[in-house]
Amino acid sequence: MEQLPRSFFERYTPYVAKDLIGCRLVRVIDDVRLAGIIVETEAYRGRGDPASHAFRGRTKRNEVMFGEAGHAYVYFTMGMHYCLNVTTERPGEAGAALLRAVEPVEGADEMALNRGPRRGGHIADGPGRLTEAMDIDGRLNGEDLVTSPALFIEGGSRQGRIMTSARVGVSRGTERRWRFFAAESRFVSKGRPSSTAQNP
DNA sequence: TAATGGATGTTCT
DNA sequence: GAACATCCATTAT
Known about the structure:
14% helix, 9 strands, globular
């Protein structure tokens, strides 16, 4: 499969987030591939989206969201975990798609090791778990996923039913159903099916 | 199976 | 000082 081109990311964020379902997230460490099928994402935009880090404008933390699409936005949250996003929209327009869960398909054993002994069957079903399993942290903030050999996304063809819900863990902007997940996958993080995806 | 609270850094009020 | 795009262990049902 081909690495996704810049044009894939330079679009309305909810479309990008929805289309990422079924694509393959790849992390290469010392020539070893760790990869998973993306099964759950969320869309965050800029001004006008009160749940977004970019809602109040550019800061040191979120500046990647305002730059070129197709870059990694990795931030540290809750004093504990990293979360991985892919930037979207045209330059100057803030946006990012949060990758919340993948189904491990390459290097699954390695990913389980990265998660430690208390994983309890949860390898990459949750944004903090995903980054831990794939060894992603602040060092990769700003990485260009269109050209990077260490972190990128390959196109997918697998298309099950995609469903939507309100975004997880946010208290504002809950009227937007900008969480997308593969309906039949047992690798999504949580939440209950609520409606089939229409054009967001 | 569901609800609660702790760990812990960054950002904003 | 509070809230937060989280996860995990403990407690209650």
